[in-house]
Amino acid sequence: MLIAHSPDADDIFMYYAIKFGWVGMKDVSFDNIALDIETLNEATLKGKYDIAAISFALYPHVREEYAPLRTAVSFGEGYGPKLIKPKGAKLKKNFKVALSGKYTTNAMLFRIAYPHARITYMNFLDIEEAVKSGKVDAGVLIHESILTYADELEVEREIWDVWQELSGGGLPLPLGGMAIRRSLPLNKAIEYEKTLTKAVDVARGHKDRLSKMLIERDLVRVDAPTLDKYLELYANDDSISLSELQYKAIDKLYELGFRHGFYDTLVKIEDYLIPTQYESLRNS
Fold first, then answer.
1. Span 88-132, pLDDT tens digits
2. How many percent of the chain have pLDDT more than 70?
3. Which of 85, 149, 246, 279 has the smallest number of CB atoms closer than 10 Å to its CB?
4. Quick one: pLDDT at residue 9?
5. All domains of the chain in start order, with CATH
């Protein structure tokens, strides 16, 4: 079974309990591929992978073909992507901005908040340099770059603050999760979700050991202190399994997207989950 995820540290961390053999599934061999998040979003639109990391904002577009997993989720709580610019720069109403992809959560929220901005999409790894070089006036940083951007740049606005204003406050910011193909046998899909949930749980329980192994093998792009800080942001105990508050946050995101014309229908995330009750019914 191939699992597609992004190359950022939280996805690597949440998957590698499987890669290192700490968690497994009988008669199933797991492999992985790391691709930038918008590449994964577009691949999921085309139905390329059975299990893939996606932006939460993408999910309503693939709801008929994929189910959201309850695990390996990343939310912001008082933090998130950052709109950055050169220090001292004044942004015009129609400033040119680099975003990490059309279907990312930060892009949807940005487009709602800044309808007059001129948008260009690029790989998230190239955004900081595009701002520094003047190719764009500003850019939205994601993943580890929110902690490591250059001193000559400054934050114009936090996407967390955009989210608070648009959502009314009181909810974490839904950023990314995992999706699984609906055409897989249901009993297998349930087992895949359980295995991935256990992997995230085990990773959290052995955070220090796993983090050390990832750094020693050059599997992450940051040093040990930055990795530790980053994992507490995006691969924390709230990443193991979706909570009621997180469900509410995702539904609010989809309500905003529907209201602003990004979706053709109003989606409630819990309506599309894998029906785990099938397992008990099957064994009754």
1. 999 999 999 999 999 999 999 999 999 999 999 999 889 999 999
2. 98
3. 279
4. 87
5. 2-75+174-282 (3.40.190.10), 82-167 (3.40.190.10)
